[in-house]
From TrEMBL:
The protein, known as: Sugar ABC transporter permease
Transmembrane segments annotated in the record for this chain: 21-42, 86-107, 119-140, 146-166, 194-215, 252-274
Keyword Hydrolase: no
Organism: Streptomyces phaeofaciens
Membrane topology, from the record: Multi-pass membrane protein
Listed GO biological process terms: transmembrane transport
Family: Belongs to the binding-protein-dependent transport system permease family.
Keywords: Cell membrane, Membrane, Transmembrane, Transmembrane helix, Transport
SUPFAM superfamilies, per the entry: MetI-like
Cross-referenced InterPro entries: MetI-like (IPR000515), MetI-like_sf (IPR035906)
Domain ABC transmembrane type-1: 82-273
Amino acid sequence: MASIQSTRRPKAIRGTRGRGIALHAVLVVGLVLSAFPFYWAVIMSTHTSSEIFSYPPKLLPGTHFLENARSLFDTVDFFGSMLNSLLVAGSVTFLVLLFDSLAAFVFAKFAFPGRRVLFALLMVIFMVPAQLAAIPQFVIMAKLGWIGSMTSLIVPAAANAFGIFWMRQYMRGAIHDELLDASRIDGASFLRQYWHVALPVVRPGLAFLGIFTFMGQWNDYAWPLIALTNPDNVTLQVALSQLNGTHGTTDYGMVMTGALLALVPLLIVFAIGARQIIGDLAKGAIK
């Protein structure tokens, strides 16, 4: 019996190792496929257009990155447009985190008349495509005199149905009713419950929502193109679109340089948000 068990254990260990190696191989292949578009963007940003379309394709970095960057800065107001995008994306992210978390806290932990009806209405709004609201939204912004200013981009996006739904679902499981009951016994008001009880618990959910919102606003193209009527005062995505077909031709090296530089703020925000998510999850696991 002991000899049979001893022969089974090495087979089990080998089987586990084989599955682990296969899983790591699949993950490595997935990583390579996911990272290749970014690597190809880096390669294209360091070559001229003629070198990009040469055969065989060049798979190593070239020497024209600084030249492409100078052409980019001479063609469009890159840093001014980036500042506009940072202003819009940062302001919208802050307002979304504030308003959506407040509304979600009420929906998740407080009973009031009409709560189910309001939440159902919120879900209906969530399912309506944003493109359908473009014309009414433009009319409202025009009547308010906000067309052409950053206010027309920030105010309509200050709250959204997805953020409220996401935070409501997260708060229902993360915030225990006993914590709120204890805070009420201590005399905590609604805002104190929100600030001192709810927010410390739901920081991973807020970090995800912040990353999601910032990326969405940073990459938004259609509404800024409609609302910002002054071509000299646009967001970065609209400015980069002006590089296509400049002077009848497209300098793809310059275009890819602009796209690559536009990724830098997104990578920074993602790194900060992901660190917050992982850190808070680790703390929760330890507790």
